[in-house]
Fold each of these.
Amino acid sequence: MIVYAVPVISQLETVMRHVLNWFHSNLGLTWAWSIVATTVVVRMLLVPLTIRQIHSMQNLQKHAPQMKEIQKKYKHDRQKQNEELMKFYRENKINPAASCLPMLLQLPVFIALYYTLRNFQSHFHVGPHADLSFLHFIPSIAAHTTTHWGGYVLLFVYVASQMASSFFMMTTTDKTQRTLFMITPLVFVFIIARFPAGLVLYWVTTNLWTVGQGLITRRLVGKTPAPVVEKRSSRTPPKDDGSSGNGAKQESPQPKPAPSASQRPRQVRRKKKRTSRR
Amino acid sequence: MNAVTRVPRLVGVGAVWLYRLTFGALFPTTCKYHPSCSEYAVQALRRHGLVRGSLLAGWRLLRCNPWSHGGFDPVR
């Protein structure tokens, strides 16, 4: 299987080399900025796929009360809760979660960039004095991230951006899952530290794009205002629903069941006025 | 189940776990299906073997696109 995969990887690497070279030669970008430009182009190509998700989120706002009801009903059985929510999504043709396919489409880009950066010096025939730096704090995008202090700054930015992007991508309300998603970058930073700095740059760029996209999505979708529950007291005037103008009470067709202790309206005790006799 | 049938599906399940621990963990997203695509792949590989399991997992991945509605979709 790996034997068959190797030609595919080398093909991907060739394509990536051509793309980076095009940005570097034709647009005059440095190698580091060429990586940023490639990432932006990849994410721009994936934008049509995310528009659908924005529409789904807009629909989701309408069904929020029913969803909360399901979550409340099966709060002790997460498996059942997930199944019921999924059924509800399908019935109402909504789904807030992201699809796996757009995310997997980024996998070849990531692999191609990894191999390109690994063999960067030999493939691009760049001399030892070639400008591989990024914003003056990363000396070389082809070197391991932790070879310079700037790499640690990049790793810090990576962790922050990953957490922010996870925050926007998450649709789950489960606290454990949310915490796990937020902690993951802290654990994986030790593995990423061994990657070339250019790859971390790709990651940071794609995360920042996700954050920007998330912010725009939130603005487009808007927050649904919480339902205003009118607090009624003994002093609140009777509601005029337009059915009766004379203020007379309308009899309900069916007798109301006796309210439970929790539902019973609070009785206001009034002090009796003492009439003093002189 | 003998080793001839067990080893390929173990390789497949191992590949899914490798994905989960690397790329999947770095790009955490929640799948629109239940069970999630990677969980579906593991179940399909265990139940139907490497070839049919991989095909089922691939078909599920193609279905997990922005135009599908997702939902409860177990391995059959």
Amino acid sequence: MTDAGFVIAAYAVIVGGLGLYTVTLWRRLRAVQRRDDEGR
Amino acid sequence: MSDLRGEARIALAIARTDALAELRGRHATVSTLFFSAVVLLLFGFALGPDSARLAAAAPGLLWLAVVFAGMLAVSRLHLMETDDGALEQLALYPITRRAIYAGKALAGLAVMVVLGLLVLAAVGILFAVDIGGAWLPLVATVLLGAIGIAAVGTFYAGVTVRLRAREVMLPLLMLPVLAPLLLGAVKATAAALAGDPFGELGAWLQLLAAFDVIMVVAGAATYGYLLED
Amino acid sequence: MKTRILGFVALGAVAVMLAVALFVVPADLNQGDAQRIMYPHVASAWLGYLSFGVTAVSGILWLWRRDLRFDAVAVAGAEIGVIFTAFAIWGGMMWGRPIWGVFWQWEDPRLTTTALLLALYVGYLLFRRLTDDPERRATRAAIVGIVAAVDIPIVHFSVEWWRGLHQTATIGSPDRVLNPAAPMVFVGTLLGMLGAFTLAWAYLMIRRYQLARAELAHEEAVRRQRIQAARAPQPGPTSTEVAR
């Protein structure tokens, strides 16, 4: 891999990971809200 | 002031009870020692047969064996409590939690010192390193290392004793925290065995001592919160 | 609502800094393009440490005040801390391969210390899952978190000493970008990336905190329902069902 490859790998995982984590947080939040609504 | 002495007396009483129980259950102590011997043997097979390489690795192998066996030893000291609810009963007495922690840690320390010295001797034999020449700094290192392992181990054994999956949680929590101790003890041992060519032995022993003090204080300060569980 | 605005601002800031770090700022003379990895790597490491500091302090505050909101902050800090620390290690490895030729090096104190940090807080998170009662969990987690936090400076010291005895040529040192003599462009980009990431961190912390509180409230509601159900009187023989 050239240097550029490592740079891309680094940024892709970090930025992609941040995005992925953000989305899973949203999903988990929605899931708890849904459970609460159903519970009532 | 007399409070402190009362505490100390309680701590020693607990220590003696635990240590005696440990020694009377000699089977468990012997098993732990035998375990460390087997670990050393396996290291020999894994890294040998080149004796020069093993001699160079000896300090590391010594402390790995001590840490692994130490984990078994401290978890057992706490196990004895839950089996008959003695820990809960202890907490009912109007004694400070610090004293309980100190007592358990002292018992653990006694076990660790014995363990450490015996493993040291075994390493000398198995990996052909000359212990006799540097016995004083080596014993000092074993002592300081034992204090740290006992302090940290007692704390985490108390933390995990009532949890499911405790067999894996204890090592998982304890080992990262012990990394600086492992580092320092191995470096000190290596320096001692080599005759301290760079004059670094003192620095490593100081690191160990600092680790011990910090961990004993942290353990004593927080252990009490466990007992209110 | 305010959090959503924060989220958008953070997103914008990160996007801008990405462009700057990848295309605007020049490559390093010695390290080439690989040096660009330092920007998100250092930012992630910094946020990892910050998060765990938050967790440790929140634990102390819980033990002192017994307000479960502090425990919610603690778990948010630990989870997000693990994420950023993992990013830092990944960045370090991606930087290491072109510069050192290897993905990992034991002589680099920051890499090894950060790995230990990760181990400590993954252990913390796994440990939390073993207790169901919120108060007990908070107390146990707090003391484990405190001892872990106390260990970190010792790890730093010992690893620095450890490394110090094996001085290797520091051609490829990650310190360069932090060096005060470094060109302003580099320092500016690093600070910009740090700022953008911190905004993202703040947004994630708030959301994770909200999630923790929502889950706590839900657990509490479930528990109350169960207690009520257990206490409900059993229907007697005069009920309408028998009459049918």
